[in-house]
Amino acid sequence: MATRKRFIGIALAGILGGALVSGAVAGAATDSVSGIATIAQREGGAKLAEILKGLVDKGTITQAQADAVKAALEAARPALPPRGPGIGRGANLESAAAYLGMTLDALRTQLSSGKSLAEVAAATAGKTRDGLIAAMVQAENARIDKAVADGKMTAQQA
After folding, report:
1. How many whole angstroms separate alpha carbon 27 and alpha carbon 15?
2. Which of 4, 16, 5 is CA-nearest to residue 99?
3. What is the pLDDT of residue 13?
4. Which of 20, 74, 106, 125 has the least C-beta neighbours within 10 A?
5. What local confidence, expressed as pLDDT, does residue 88 receive?
6. How many CB atoms lie within 10 A of CB 109?
7. Is-contact 9 33, C-beta < 8 A?
8. How far is Cα of residue 78 from the mean position of the Cα atoms in its chain?
9. Distances (CA, A) of 120 to 132, 134, 139
10. Can you spell out the DSSP letters for the chain?
């Protein structure tokens, strides 16, 4: 259960940070290559390809090395179980709205205008990106704990 919860924290940090590199550093600190691979998968292969292409263009790495990195990350990506609503479906906006002290519709309006969750948190008096992450992780952990208690998920799946 701790592994999935740690993954959720890492994934939320990557979602809210909006950058593959910052998410990859967080993943590397806790889950090594597997965490980086998962974040790279969530951020999209295009971002990873863009970063690696930049390194090849600068001569920092060769194309063969870039290809090896892509292959290693693909091989290390953990198999994710089928997901219901929650992190895999766009994060738990209800908990984000509650933390930010706004309605779900108001939060969706802000997000549809192009703002990220981190930007909305920064623009909300007394709220922070880190506080938002903590609130969303806490809500997701509670959802997972309830699913285990209700027998909808095993402790190992959690």
Report:
1. 12
2. 16
3. 53
4. 125
5. 39
6. 12
7. no
8. 14
9. 10, 15, 19
10. -HHHHHHHHHHHHHHHH--HHHHHHHHHHHHHHHHHHHHHHHH-HHHHHHHHHHHHHTTSS-HHHHHHHHHHHHHHPPPPPP--SSGGGT--HHHHHHHHTS-HHHHHHHHHTT--HHHHHHHSTT--HHHHHHHHHHHHHHHHHHHHHTTSS-TTT-
What is the pLDDT tens value at each position of the chain, 158 positions in all? 555 555 555 555 555 554 334 444 444 443 455 555 555 555 556 777 888 899 999 999 999 998 888 888 777 766 554 444 444 344 578 889 999 999 988 998 888 888 888 899 999 999 999 999 999 989 888 888 888 899 888 888 87
| Token pair recorded at residue 95 | 């908990």
Residue 104 token pair: 């779900």
And the tokens for 6? 């740690």
Both tokens of 23, joined, read 């998410």
> Tokens standing for 108?
């969706």
